[in-house]
Amino acid sequence: MSSAQSIFGPRYLALSIGIILAAMTIGFEGLAVTTVAPAIAGDLNGIHLFGWIFSAYLLAQIVGTLVIGRQIDRKGPASLFTIAILLFAAGLVLAAVATDMYVLIGSRALQGFGAGAMYTCIYTAISLSYPDELRAKILGALGTAYVLPSMLGPYVAGLIAQHFSWRFVFWGVLPFLLLAVLLSLPVFRKLKMPVVQEKNETGVIGLSVLLAIGTGLFLSGLGMLPKALGITLLIVGLALMAQPLRKLLPSGTLIFHAGLSSLIASRGLFFAAYVCTQNFLVLALTDTKGLAADRAGLIVACAALSWCIVAILQARWDAADQGRGRNKRIIAGILLMIAGIGIMAWVPVLNIWLAILGEIVAGIGIGLAHTTSGTVAFSFSKEGESGQVSGSLQFADSFTPGVAVGIGGAIVALSQTGGMSMQAGITAAMMFNLALVLLSLVASVRTKRVQPFHQPASQPANQTST
User: Does residue 279 contact residue 53 with C-beta atoms inside 8 Å?
Assistant: First the structure.
């Protein structure tokens, strides 16, 4: 393969390695926190605030994703990427030195805003820098960036928490973040943004904050069910979320309008199902099967491995058919996720071998659907809209999983309140995940077929020569 056709050729090498390292850093930190969160809450006497370790990250990520996604088309990714990195790094340091849960929750909010903004900048750089025929390859490489953090992150974090301190998990992320910055930021500064008409974005921050507040009330209400206050917060949260979702997402996303809207909806739903399944599978393995956290982490890593392999293969398939099979690959991936999640729904009742099988199948499915959906989304991007499309992709990857995990947690809690076993509660949560991925299949069939390789290879990037 010639350098012009390779994401690791001279033109793209620094940018490719830099954004892959940045993605690995964010992925490792997120997966590590999932493993050490119980230790954090116990050490800081904050079990009653356990859910906010994740909710604070989610809510801030919503704001970071949407605000940066609207600003990046006018200001370019370099300065915004710098701000995002500084906020993410500040959050890591504050978490490492936190002496109470409120400081820890605040640090998670900084991390969430920074992570959402960083990923939006990464997606925008991909849209601007790589031609259509290379986007499947770089997005596949980003999928492989989950291998080390997904396979080693939970296991290593579990060992650190058991033998040392959870604080070292946050300190350990900083060197990798610094390396990613040194490689990618200089290239970000050379990206040329297309000239676009100034837009009035004054309402974006307000809508983003309103959405975050509404989501926070919704998640808080879920945690208080079936109390009257919980039901009230749930209704108020939903009411506050409705208008921002309609305004900030591509038109028609909530009703699966054909094209980009249905693609974003489908991606949000199947990714939410995948993430939520991973969370409750760990709970099933540790609470109902008695596995240690590190061993449960290794089983979860099976999906990361199959995701990685398929992410690499789909780039080759995309090159072979020149993008003609993208929509079919998304649908095939969702069908495999349905099978994998369906298998894992039986883990609380049967044995852990089902977990391994289900993880492998679901990993193959997410490797096909997630990576390919990103490539298709960029094919919808018009000049001057790369940031908005990037923000929509990142929003789908952050908002819906966070809400789904909250709903799943409420299902488990309500089942126990009703006198059901933990096994029954987790199984019910898994069935909810299955319903989400089935709904994503409905949305995926409304995604408009795109022309193969619409951007000529002779015009590969909006990047200055180096």
Answer: no
